C-alpha cells in the first residue's frame, strides 16, 4: 500500500508527464577521516595529483560529447579541478600528515564555503565543488564515479540533485522528467530542463521516499508529483498532455488575446547561437539578450570590436523585429576582474548591475559604443535596458547614456520594489520598462533566489509581487509606454494571462515555452485577463493566488 500521495516542489516548465520512478545515485564516497597518513606526504601528494588529473580528464572527455551548454559547464568544472590554488591548498594540508582523501575533501570544502558566502549565482556553483570533491575522493578510494542508468524504458528520474557530469552521460531521450529534492530554479538541473524542454520539479522535499517503479504524474505547472494516481487523475493528465501536444503542432502566429489585442511573445537568449531556435519556435523578437557570456571568465573586458561582432550576430537574426539587450549584469554577486567591487557582506544588495557599471564607466561606455555600432547596418530594432535600477536618478543617467550614443530606445529593468512603487516617475524618464520577476520576487520576499531552502518563497505568484507588477502596468498604460516581463513568470501560461491583465504588453521567455503561452493567451479577452488578475491580486498567499486565478479562468471558459 502506498501512503504517499503528493509531493510539492518548484516546477520547471509547464508540462505534465506520467511514468515510473527510477532513483538515480552514484555510489557514495566514504567520508575521509583525520587518520594520519601511513605512506608519507610525498606519496600522498602524488596520489592527490593523480586523482585530480583523473577527474579533470573525465570532465573534459564528457564535455567533448556534450551539447553546447553542458560542455561549457563541464569545461569550467575541469578548470576548477586544475586550479593551482586548489592543489596548493591540498599540498599544504598534506604537510600536516593527513591522507590525500582528507586533504582533497577539506580543500574543496574551503573553496565551496567561499562561493557560498558570495551568495547568488556563486552559491549555486558551490554544489558543483561538492560534486568534484566527491569524485576526487572516490577515485582515491578506488570507487566508481560512474552513473549507470539503463532501465530499458522511459522513466521519471528521481535524485537528490544532478551534477552536470552526470547529466552528460544520461540518455535524455528516455528521461520523462527530473524530480530532485535539492536545487533551486537556477540549479543545473533546472537549467538543463529548460534548455532541453524536459519537465522538472526541483526542491521537492521527500522524493527519497518514492517507491522505485511506482507510477507518478509530474505536473510542473502546478508544482507537484501525484503518486500512484487514480483513473480520474490519469485521465486529466492525459488530456493535458494531448492538449499540449496539439498546441505545439499548431501553426505559429503572434501572441494575441482572444480579441486580437497583441501581447508580443519574445525570447530570452544567453548567446547569439540561441537565436536560430528562437526564430524557429516563433519568437517575435528578443525580450532579454544577456550579455554576460562575453565578460564572464575573462581577465579583461572584451574590446568594442569583439562585442560588436557578437551583438550584430543576434540583431541580424531578427530583421525588422525588437531586440532588447541588457547591459552587463555583474558586480558583487558575479565578480569580474575588471569590474569587481571587492568583498561585500551581502552581494545581492551591493554594487551590482548598473551600480557596478557606473563605478567602472569605461566598461559601460564601451558596451554602448559596441551596441550602437552593431545596430548600424542591421534591420533589427535595438532596445537597450539597464539592470538593477533603483531610483529616478539612475533612470535618467542610463537613458541619457543610451540616447547619447544614438540608440533611440532606452529602458530600465524593474527588479527592485522601489522602482515598481514609483513606476510613474521612473517611466517619465525612460522609454520602456521590463520586469525581471526573478529578482523582483527575491527582493520583495527577501528570499535568495539561489537557495533551495527558501525556494518556496521564490514564487512570482505572490500577491505582493503581483501588486508591484500592477503598479508598473498601470504607469505604462497611463504614459503610453511598453511594459514587458522577462523573468520566469512569463513562461507560466496562466500567469502570463494574469500579467496581461495587469497591463503587461510583452512577455519574454525561454523559446520552448512560447507555444504554451501563445495558446493560453488566445483563450481570454482583455476583460477576462483583468478579471483573472483581480482574483489573483485578492489572494493572501502565492498558492492561493494561483488557485484563485485558475478558478476564475475555469469559470470564464466554462461559461462559453
Question: If you had to describe this structure to a student in words, what would you say it looks like?
Answer:
There is one protein chain. The protein is of the alpha/beta class and 560 residues long. It has three domains: 6-25 and 147-244, Phosphohistidine domain (Glucose Oxidase, domain 1, 3-Layer(bba) Sandwich), CATH 3.50.30.10; 41-141, PtsI, HPr-binding domain (Enzyme I, Chain A, domain 2, Orthogonal Bundle); 250-559, TIM Barrel (Alpha-Beta Barrel), CATH 3.20.20.60. The chain contains 21 helices and 16 strands. The strands form two sheets. Strands 1-8-7-3-4-5-6-2 form an eight-stranded mixed beta sheet. An eight-stranded parallel β-barrel has the order 9-10-11-12-13-14-15-16, surrounded by four helices. Helix 1 packs antiparallel against helix 3, helix 4 (100-118) runs antiparallel to helix 5 (120-140) and helix 18 (493-501) crosses helix 19 (514-521). The longest helix has 24 residues, at 41-64. It starts with 5 loop residues before the first strand and ends with a helix. The relative contact order is 0.10. The model has no long low-confidence stretch (mean pLDDT 88).
Amino acid at each position: 500500500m502506498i501512503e504517499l500521495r503528493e509531493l510539492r516542489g518548484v516546477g520547471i516548465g509547464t508540462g505534465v508527464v506520467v511514468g515510473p520512478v527510477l532513483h538515480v545515485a552514484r555510489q557514495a564516497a566514504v567520508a575521509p577521516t583525520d587518520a594520519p597518513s601511513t605512506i608519507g606526504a610525498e606519496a600522498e601528494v602524488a596520489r592527490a595529483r593523480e586523482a585530480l588529473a583523473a577527474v579533470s580528464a573525465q570532465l573534459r572527455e564528457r564535455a567533448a560529447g556534450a551539447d553546447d551548454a553542458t560542455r561549457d559547464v563541464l569545461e569550467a568544472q575541469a578548470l576548477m579541478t586544475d586550479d593551482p590554488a586548489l592543489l596548493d591548498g591540498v599540498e599544504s594540508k598534506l604537510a600536516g600528515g593527513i591522507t590525500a582523501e582528507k586533504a582533497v575533501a577539506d580543500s574543496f570544502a574551503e573553496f565551496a564555503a567561499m562561493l557560498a558566502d558570495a551568495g547568488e549565482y556563486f552559491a549555486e556553483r558551490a554544489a558543483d565543488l561538492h560534486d568534484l570533491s566527491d569524485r576526487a575522493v572516490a577515485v582515491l578510494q578506488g570507487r566508481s564515479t560512474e552513473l549507470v542508468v539503463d532501465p530499458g524504458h522511459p522513466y521519471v528520474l528521481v535524485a537528490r540533485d544532478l551534477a552536470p557530469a552526470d547529466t552528460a552521460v544520461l540518455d535524455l531521450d528516455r528521461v520523462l522528467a527530473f524530480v530532485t529534492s535539492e536545487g533551486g530554479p537556477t540549479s543545473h538541473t533546472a537549467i538543463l530542463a529548460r534548455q532541453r524542454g524536459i519537465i522538472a520539479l526541483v526542491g521537492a522535499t521527500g522524493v527519497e521516499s518514492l517507491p522505485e517503479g511506482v507510477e507518478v504524474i509530474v505536473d510542473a505547472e502546478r508544482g507537484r508529483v501525484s503518486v500512484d494516481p487514480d483513473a480520474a487523475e490519469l485521465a486529466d493528465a492525459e488530456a493535458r498532455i494531448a492538449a499540449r501536444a496539439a498546441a505545439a503542432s499548431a501553426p505559429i502566429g503572434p501572441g494575441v488575446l482572444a480579441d486580437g489585442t497583441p501581447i508580443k511573445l519574445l525570447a530570452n537568449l544567453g548567446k547569439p547561437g540561441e537565436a536560430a531556435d528562437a526564430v524557429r519556435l516563433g519568437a517575435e523578437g528578443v525580450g532579454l539578450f544577456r550579455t554576460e557570456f562575453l565578460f564572464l571568465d575573462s581577465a579583461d573586458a572584451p574590446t568594442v570590436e569583439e562585442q560588436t561582432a557578437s551583438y550584430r550576430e543576434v540583431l541580424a537574426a531578427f530583421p525588422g523585429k525588437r531586440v532588447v539587450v541588457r547591459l552587463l549584469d555583474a558586480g558583487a554577486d558575479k565578480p569580474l576582474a575588471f569590474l569587481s567591487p571587492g568583498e561585500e557582506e551581502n552581494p545581492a544588495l551591493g554594487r551590482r548591475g548598473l551600480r557596478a557599471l557606473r563605478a567602472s564607466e569605461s566598461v559601460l561606455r564601451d558596451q554602448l559604443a559596441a551596441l550602437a555600432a552593431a545596430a548600424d547596418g542591421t534591420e533589427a530594432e535595438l532596445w537597450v535596458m539597464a539592470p538593477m535600477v533603483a531610483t529616478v536618478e539612475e533612470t535618467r543617467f542610463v537613458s541619457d547614456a543610451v540616447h547619447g550614443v544614438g540608440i533611440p530606445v532606452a529602458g530600465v529593468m524593474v527588479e527592485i520594489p522601489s522602482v515598481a512603487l514609483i513606476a510613474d516617475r521612473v517611466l517619465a524618464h525612460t522609454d520602456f520598462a521590463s520586469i525581471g520577476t526573478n529578482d523582483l520576487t527575491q527582493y520583495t520576499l527577501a528570499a535568495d533566489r539561489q537557495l533551495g531552502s527558501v525556494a518556496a518563497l521564490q514564487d512570482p505568484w505572490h500577491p505582493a509581487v503581483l501588486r508591484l507588477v500592477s503598479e508598473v502596468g498601470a504607469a505604462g498604460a497611463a504614459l503610453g509606454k511598453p511594459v514587458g516581463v522577462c523573468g520566469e513568470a512569463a513562461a507560466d501560461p496562466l500567469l502570463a494571462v494574469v500579467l496581461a491583465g495587469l497591463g503587461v504588453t510583452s512577455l519574454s521567455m525561454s523559446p520552448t515555452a512560447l507555444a504554451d503561452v501563445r495558446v493560453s493567451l488566445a483563450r481570454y479577452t482583455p476583460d477576462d485577463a483583468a478579471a483573472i488578475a483581480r482574483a489573483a491580486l485578492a489572494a493572501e498567499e502565492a498558492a492561493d493566488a494561483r488557485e484563485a486565478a485558475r478558478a476564475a479562468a475555469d469559470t470564464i471558459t466554462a461559461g462559453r
